[in-house]
Design a protein that fits this description.
binds fe (iii) ion, binds N-(iminomethyl)-L-glutamic acid, 18 strands, alpha/beta, eight-stranded parallel sheet, six-stranded mixed sheet, globular
């Protein structure tokens, strides 16, 4: 048995050693103060204590021998570590699927016409209302698990497929339950203004009122939503209707998002800019005035190439105009059963490069640093001391490879709040 002096010394050592240290990886920090497109640290080390990053830098600058510094040394030479990926725009809780609609569209049917005839989103509303809690949860966990296998540690999940106050909260409850099961951090967004439910066909203003007066306070009181989103489109809601809801969101201190200018220039980006929304998303048909408004309002442009691809759109968002105006990009899956059945954020990031011309470093920053900014999460999205230890460890030779391949699984480890997800271990 160790003498009391030695035991005290060991206890002291235990207390002062970091929990773990990743030794030898290249770090893509996405810290804009560091050089290069990735904020790269070659042959690095990253130490974790509790759920935080407590040290990072080149191995050569470690303040001691790794074994003396940390309880556990994880050898990761030749890998790349990025921040855990963040999918900042999904509709991942829903009942059923829309395979029939997809096939009909391949045969020439139009997405907008299907929506105007009461199909599309409203078909999913019917399937979601009919689904049991267990069915909704099983589907959400399955999709979330796929995202996690691809290095995702934080996901935004929107409501919007029930359109009753209780049902919208149920969707957000399911999203949070799925997050706990799949070990993914979920942030909820209330999307009451997604489509007009049939029961309000002749009472549009009453539905907008229901969202503002009942859904927003209920989501806020339950702590299930941090942001409020709205679909501005000819066959969805007008900018004026959204403003009524945005006023209520402001009162409830919730952030704002806008589905903007996807199918037509409906003034969505301009609305987002006027209200200093966190983001405007889609943006295929945003005008130069919309781009200017977003720059003035400090909005991030969330690009959703999965929807662009699936709807076989041919009018990409004005990426160069956003660059010229200094509007940053985020990239997300838009995971949903209608316009974007995409269950891989890396695939979305790859499509943002191939279809919209993003540089891989813009696309990866859009799935990390800028996605965190969209969600108002200052504690993640970069590798830096004091931030959450949410990491993805990749078996790739350079970061571009994460987007170059579509498919495949280069993920070696996923770390959430300092804890390695053992299910994802190769
Ligand atoms: O982001 N644009 C509106 N909402 C979803 C589509 C939802 C659906 O078609 O079910 C989107 O693409
Ligand atoms: Fe969407």
């Amino acid at each position: 048995m160790a003498s009391p002096g030695v035991a005290a010394h060991l206890a002291f050592m235990t207390r002062t050693r970091w929990d773990s240290i990743w030794l030898g990886p290249n770090l893509a920090t996405f810290d804009s103060n560091l050089p290069g497109p990735w904020g790269e640290i070659a042959d690095g080390a990253l130490a974790i204590d509790g759920d935080r990053i407590v040290w990072l830098g080149p191995v050569s600058e470690l303040p001691g021998a790794p074994e003396a510094l940390a309880e556990r040394v994880r050898h990761a030479h030749g890998t790349w570590i990025t921040p855990g990926l963040i999918d900042c725009h999904t509709h991942l809780v829903h009942g059923g699927d829309r395979i029939g609609e997809w096939v009909a569209r391949l045969g020439g049917r139009d997405y907008d016409d299907i929506a105007r005839e009461g199909g599309g989103i409203m078909q999913t509303v019917g399937q979601t209302r009919a689904a049991s809690d267990e069915e909704l949860l099983a589907g959400a966990v399955s999709r979330l698990t796929d995202l996690a296998r691809d290095g995702v540690t934080t996901v935004e999940v929107k409501s919007g497929y029930d359109l009753t106050a209780a049902g919208e909260i149920r969707m957000l409850d399911v999203a949070h339950a799925a997050g706990r099961l799949a070990k993914v951090q979920v942030q909820g967004t209330l999307l009451g203004l997604h489509a007009l439910p049939a029961e309000f066909e002749h009472h549009r203003a009453d539905y907008v009122d229901l969202v503002a007066r009942e859904m927003i306070p209920a989501a806020r009181a339950r702590g299930r939503a941090r942001q409020v989103d709205a679909f501005v489109e000819g066959f969805a809601f007008s900018a004026e209707e959204c403003e009524r809801v945005f006023e209520a969101a402001r009162v409830a201190e919730l952030g704002l998002r806008v589905h903007a200018d996807q199918r037509s220039d409906s003034g969505g980006a301009a609305l987002a800019g006027r209200w200093c929304a966190a983001s405007a998303d889609h943006l295929e048909r945003t005008s130069p005035a919309g781009v200017r408004a977003m720059a003035e309002g400090g909005c991030v442009a969330v690009l959703l190439p999965g929807a662009y691809l699936t709807l076989r759109d041919d009018h990409p968002p004005p990426v160069q105009a956003f660059r010229d105006a200094g509007v940053p990009f985020a990239v997300a899956t838009d995971l949903n059963p209608g316009s974007s059945p995409v269950r891989s954020l890396r695939a979305a990031g790859s499509l943002a490069c191939s279809l919209f011309g993003l540089h891989p470093s813009e696309s990866l920053a859009g799935m990390t640093r800028e996605a965190a900014r969209v969600l108002g999460l200052a504690d993640r999205g970069r590798l830096a001391v004091g931030l959450r230890a949410d990491l993805a460890v990749w078996d790739v030779e350079r970061p571009e490879e994460l987007l170059y391949w579509i498919g495949g699984s280069p993920l070696r480890d996923r770390v959430v709040g300092g804890v390695v997800d053992e299910r994802e271990r190769a």
